[in-house]
Every structure is written in C-alpha cells, then in structure tokens.
TrEMBL record:
<keyword id="KW-0238">DNA-binding</keyword>
<dbReference type="InterPro" id="IPR001387">
    <property type="entry name" value="Cro/C1-type_HTH"/>
</dbReference>
<dbReference type="GO" id="GO:0003677">
    <property type="term" value="F:DNA binding"/>
</dbReference>
<feature type="domain" description="HTH cro/C1-type">
    <location>
        <begin position="1"/>
        <end position="55"/>
    </location>
</feature>
<dbReference type="Pfam" id="PF01381">
    <property type="entry name" value="HTH_3"/>
</dbReference>
<keyword id="KW-0472">Membrane</keyword>
<dbReference type="InterPro" id="IPR010982">
    <property type="entry name" value="Lambda_DNA-bd_dom_sf"/>
</dbReference>
<feature type="transmembrane region" description="Helical">
    <location>
        <begin position="82"/>
        <end position="104"/>
    </location>
</feature>
<keyword id="KW-0812">Transmembrane</keyword>
<keyword id="KW-1133">Transmembrane helix</keyword>
<protein>
    <submittedName>
        <fullName>XRE family transcriptional regulator</fullName>
    </submittedName>
</protein>
Length: 111
C-alpha cells in the first residue's frame, strides 16, 4: 500500500484525512500490523485507482475470455448481417433477367 500511496504523492497524513482515520492506522496497515476493514478497502481502491483484487492480493484478476460461437444463421439473420452484399446481387440478377427477357422478346418480333 505504501507504493500506491507514494505513487499518488500522498503522505500518511493526507491519506488518513481522505479516509477520516488516524495517521497511525495508515502506518499500521503499511507495516502489516493491522488490516483495513472492507469499507476502507473500497475507499482505498477508489483513491488509488486499482481493483480490490489488486489492493488485497497485489495482482490483477485474471480476465475471462469469452468466445462467442456462431451457430447456423436463419435467412433473416443472414440478411441483417450481409444486406450490403445481398442488395447489389439482387439488383444485378434482376438486371440480367430483364436484359434476357428483352433479347427474347426482340427475337420473337424480328422473325
């Protein structure tokens, strides 16, 4: 705790004032003669900008990595995710179909 306090440029008196306790209490915590109660630990964590795990255990909690696995998509999920691909392909397909129909119609009338 001493390292955290000095990193914040706080004296024992300054920290004690923030916590509304005596300087001797801070000294006892730093020397391992006493331990702060839970509400003081929460305040200390906020003052020092660290987690309670770091304050108590002197290590950061392990981060749990969550990997979301995607299952099969239904049609609506696919369209909502890939609309930017589906729309141009649809327009292109209708254009080809319309062009083919035009060619077929022209062929019927030219005979």
């Amino acid at each position: 705790m001493r390292a955290l306090r000095t990193a914040k440029n706080l004296s024992q008196d300054g920290l004690a004032e923030k916590l509304y306790i005596s300087r001797q209490a801070v000294s006892k915590w730093e020397n391992g003669e006493a331990t702060p109660d839970i509400d003081k630990l929460v305040q200390l964590a906020e003052i020092f900008g660290v987690s309670l795990d770091y304050l108590v255990l002197e290590k950061e909690p392990e981060k749990e990595i969550v990997v979301e696995q995607k299952g099969k998509m239904n049609a609506w999920e696919f369209l909502s995710e890939y609309w930017w691909v589906v729309i141009p392909i649809t327009i292109f397909a209708f254009g080809l179909f319309a062009g083919a129909m035009k060619v077929i119609q022209m062929g019927k009338f030219s005979k």
